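Morning!

This is the sequence you dropped in the shared folder:
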Amino acid sequence: MRYFSLRLFILALLIIGMITAAVAVARTVADRSGKGDPTIQVADPESRKSMIMHDVGNVRMALANWGEQGNPDGVVGFKGFEFPINSGNDFLFSAGVWIGAILNDERLVSTATDGDNGTNEFYPVHIGTYPAANAGDFGDWIVSSTNLEELSGRFYVKGAKEVDDDGDWTIADDLDGDGKPSSDWDGDSLDANGDGNPKYDPEPHIDEDPAGDISSDYIDNDFDGLVDMEDPDFDGDANPGSLDDDGDGLFDEDGASRGVQEYFCIYQDDIEDTYVGSPDADGHTPLKIQVSQRTYAYPEEYAADFILLDFTIRNIGQLTLHDVFIAMFSDPDIGARGEGGDAASLDDFNYYDAERLMMVQYDDPNDYDGAGPGVFAIRVVQTPVPLEDLKITFANFERTSGGDPDLNIDKYNLISSGTIAPPTEEMGDWRMLLGFGPAEGEFAIAPGEELPITLAFIAGDDTADVSKNADWALRLFLNDFQGPSAPNAPSFSVTPYSDHVRISWRPNAETSIDPITQEMDFEGYTIERSYNQQDWHTLAYYDLIDTLEGEFEWQNYNLGMPTDCTWFEDAHFEYYFDDTDLIPGHTYYYVVRAFDKGVEGAGILISSRTGNYLEAQTVLNEETGAPEELADVYVYPNPYKGAHKGEAGGEVNPSKGLIEYPRKLYFKNLPANSIVGQCKIQIFSLAGDHLATLDHHNGTDQTTWNLITKNKQEIVSGIYLYTVEYKKPGSGSWDRYVDKFVVIK
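The structure's back. Tokens below.
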């Protein structure tokens, strides 16, 4: 029987000193019922169960620090797995890792969730919260980023992985002789991993075997006299608990993030039944394992549709775990915006993609939302053995007909079986499970040893798109969880006036360096506006006057940089742009984005819009002459761009069996207490042709129009005028307000 050497697989991060101390504070008590194993720990009394959200890319994903993904309890403010972000579509009810092994000749499986959000056989370990500003909402999470300091109310530990800011690397790390640590994506023109692209072959890293360095086992990479397991806090030095290697007052700066959004937590199964959410029928017998979980999200288009989940499974018991198998259980519900409950869960299908070791769930292509809002998938990215040498199990269960295993032995036999279920033939509320282990030999985790596993949660518009994104997820892992990145998001502000908004931004993006190419590759800006935070319109485009090579030349518009600038006393300056002809009292959203010169294989990269936009409400113009009751009236969306699936507000029409998207304009802030004939809206073409009259008397401050004229014709693109006429109760005269709107089709 062949055994695999299992390497230490924990990042050299600032948090690990906290982790070592945290494990020590877990309590050991006798079972309160007078039976059971008195050595089983209670849940760490200092830890706090909490959830966090990945939201920097094109998916919004909820994670819990007890190992579950999704939002089965419907916690307000969280989406299970929303795609595209801000669309209202949700793809995931619940998912969680299963870890099975043979211990004392007994087949056991510890699960983060199963069935209807059951089991929860893990509990978080207290690691503190860094930075402390996050303690209120994100207890026992470490949040870090390559370039973010704050996003969506979360503050981040900022710093790029393998930038040796504190000078604690040695000459042994300079493998290519360029005078700096070998983090420049090697520069040796060798295709070390045979992927056809010599630019993306990472070399060994600073300190002890960080994530992705699976080729090095128990090697003293930094010549500190310690190898892997001997380094107590995993930061590459001989000083346990110290995260400041060189005494410069800063934590290991060369051990910060790889991802633009990177979250870390720890959970373990060594807990009493009291803390298990819904124990299996045969109870909870812990394997005594501790899981370190690090997840990565990216804003760049090529990586924005997936989340990487990196697990380190550590044996904290006294006995070796034999024949270890891992599985990811998932209960996806592919639901379009407004489609909830059974409507979202009962119309799905799934299948197994053998080429990518990926399970895929998709929506009924014949129901009212057509082919559905997209496709959801989970793939195996990496294990200690090559992917082609794995024994894979794919299973699916339909909730209403049962079939989920309830006993430990049944769960273990399932995830270790190597059977592949056929694609589902009938739609239903399908769950799916992807299990894996070595086809030959075994994963055996001795006390103190660790097993590294990496998975990816993936979305796509269709099966081809989800496959493309799955390939990028693997490629990003092979690049040590890093890829070419867009310039830093510009720092900007908005100043609203009555009829325009000024957008001002600093040139900080122009000096940002791509962590992969190590080049300062800024190329230009776009300024965008939205009415609903989902549909965005480009207001301005700026581009350096230069020459780009190869495939990107056609995108080199050479429009030049902004000429409008404001200089300040400290000699710094800001560009500005005025968005004019706006409606007083209306709310707009703005973002300034920076893009680069383009990277081969990844295309033109542009800074994220998510979390970076600002809101501006134009000031009501008191001098327009509009009467008080009509001073706040406005139309939205303006301009109206035409109904389509991307437009918010699609609603189910049961009589037609489909979603109808709104061909509607909304007239807002009308008198809410008007009666029939008291408040009229008239719509005209620019030529003065009367197109429609609306009588507002619905008891609200809003009336809608379906863009159909009094002659039953749909209006065309153009500029239109409207009047609001209101006869105040007790008054013999009519007040009038006049404005315009734009229709683009």
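Headline: Helices lie at 16-24, 342-345, 408-415, 463-478.

More detail when I'm at my desk.
O.
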